[in-house]
Amino acid sequence: MPNLSQPDNHATWSARDLAVLWHPCTQMRDHETVPMIPMARGEGAWLIDYDGRRYLDAVSSWWTNIFGHANPRIAAAIKDQLDKLEHVMLGGFSHAPAIELAEELLRIAPPGLARVFYADNGSSGIEVALKMSFHYWRNLGRGEKTRFIALTGSYHGETLGALSVTDVALYRDTYAPLLLAPIFVTSPDCYERDAQQSWQDYSIARLADMRVALERHAHETCAVIIEPLVQCAAGMRMYHPAYLTGLRKLCDEFEVHLIADEIAVGFGRTGTLFACEQGDITPDFLCLSKGLTGGFLALSAVLTTDAIYQAFYAEYSAGKAFLHSHSYTGNALACRAALETLAIFRDEPVLERNRELAAHLSYALAPLSEHPHVAEVRQTGLIAAVELVRDKTTRDVFPAEQRRGLRVYQHGLSRGMILRPLGNIVYFMPPYVITPDEIDLMVEVAREGIEITLRD
User: Fold this and answer.
1) Are residues 144 and 130 in the same domain?
2) Helix boundaries (H) for 175-241
3) Annotation-wise, does 63 bind a ligand?
4) Binding residue per annotation — 80?
5) Model pTM greater than 0.90?
6) What does the entry list as the binding residues for pyridoxal 5'-phosphate (predicted)?
7) Is 141 a known ligand-binding residue?
């Protein structure tokens, strides 16, 4: 029950939070100086704290909230479902939202995907895909295939399997003794290209590294796992769709699966509904989450092919069943939220509007490319990043311990803006309901924060 004896204000809720909660991806001691911001409600692209102060959510609440906070369509769908069925286990049972969502996902996904397996969140979805790929080869009598290939700079989650195929030291290094031993191949990250090289040429050239790895390791490899077009947690590292096209061909040639982790980049974020579309490919596994429910509820879906499904379809005594489960697999409320999210894509010109917003964002960011401490301004759809460096010519980086990105974050809060830089990379991943004027404000506050953090 609410404690009516305590004031319902920002300071009270902040103190109560810090007395009991342990927050994700946070050194809690930082909150001795960095403010904790409890939010009371949301409206579109904005969040409002308990004192009524508004904050523009420039990062879509960790890239999940695509159609705005408290979106009335999604909220109404969940409320309607609440009166019918909140949850039933999916082992031996089913319900309309799970079935209809699977049907709709397969309708809009790249062609050739035929089955949907639900999990609770993005990391869990990656675990499903990794285990399913390994188990597929085992069911075919190819038990020697036990490893995975991932890209340098990759991020796929923080459960142990997902973390195993992650190459971001901040998350991986502490737990390295617990992890699988993947094969990391040089990323097609176009920040590393020569000044004379195009994104396309550089990305295609990096396929040679993948070919070498497959020539050496395909016999022991289950799958290659990638984040299509944008490696988000590594600093919004971007590459050309031609890499996807070439990688699909290599995976087919060497008989390994291709897992596309579109948890962050799916559902219109890169300019197409799915990033894989830009490479004209269908992966063997398509992992989805985050924007799937419009940011309302936790849900993930792994889409795969009928060929993979059939490798598990046998008499029980054959021992080929995929015995993986989560208690809240295919939760009815989450599936209903996802159905309404997809209905918005169907009913409204979302992708067209996103492209217009992306063009406006590009225009607003263009002046920053000339800044003496900006090595690159890069963008793919409604994802953009500004790379801060100590020296523009050499691209010498600021020492991590200076935490310059934190200064940008704190300035943003002081101006009613939620910016959460990745190290020295200031990025933007706003909700799709943002307006051009709000984009201008977002970039202006970021520019101010960059100037402040570069003063010394």
Assistant:
1) yes
2) 199-217
3) no
4) no
5) yes
6) 122-123, 261, 326-327
7) no
